[in-house]
Amino acid sequence: QVRLVESGGDLVQAGGSLTLSCAASGTFFEIDAMGWYRQAPGLRREVVTIQTNGQPPTYADSVKGRFTISRDNAKNTVSLQMNGLKFEDTGVYYCYASVRPSIGRALVAHWGQGTRVTVST
To answer: How far apart are CA 79 and CA 115, in angstroms?
Structure first.
């Protein structure tokens, strides 16, 4: 069982900054990728950024140059530094992890319960 716990969501003014954090815990062989999704009110969940082992991170076009993902593989944590926040960044942000439960098993996707980010104009 894998558990992802996010923190850091808050109300912030447009142009401000916020850092989200996520820690993975449980029993597993390895975490192949970690990242962040978000869901704005009335819209579908979308990927924000993902960092896969051995590859550079990928970002949604809407956040490139403003958001930065950081992983600590030793601690199984991931953070998201968000700068220059815009109203349209408002939503619930979900931590994501692609986890291999044991050697030879297929990767399994996991999401946290979400942390809310509200950007006011």
So the answer is: 12
Decide: residue 40, CB within 10 A, 0-12 exposed, 13-18 middle, 19+ buried.
middle
Assign 1 a pLDDT band (cuts: 50, 70, 90). confident
- Residue 73's nearest CA partner among 58, 54, 59 is 54
Question: Tokens at residue 85, please?
Answer: 């926040």
Q: Which two tokens stand for residue 104?
A: 């030879």
Q: Find the mean pLDDT for residues 3-21.
A: 98
Biggest alpha carbon–alpha carbon distance for the chain: 49
Closest to 19 measured CA to CA, from 72, 67, 62: 67
What's the token pair of residue 48? 């924000």
Reported as a single tens digit per residue, the pLDDT across 87-106 is 999 999 999 999 999 999 99
| pLDDT tens digits for range 38-66 | 999 999 999 999 999 999 999 999 999 99
| Closest-CA residue to 4 (of 99, 100, 116) | 99
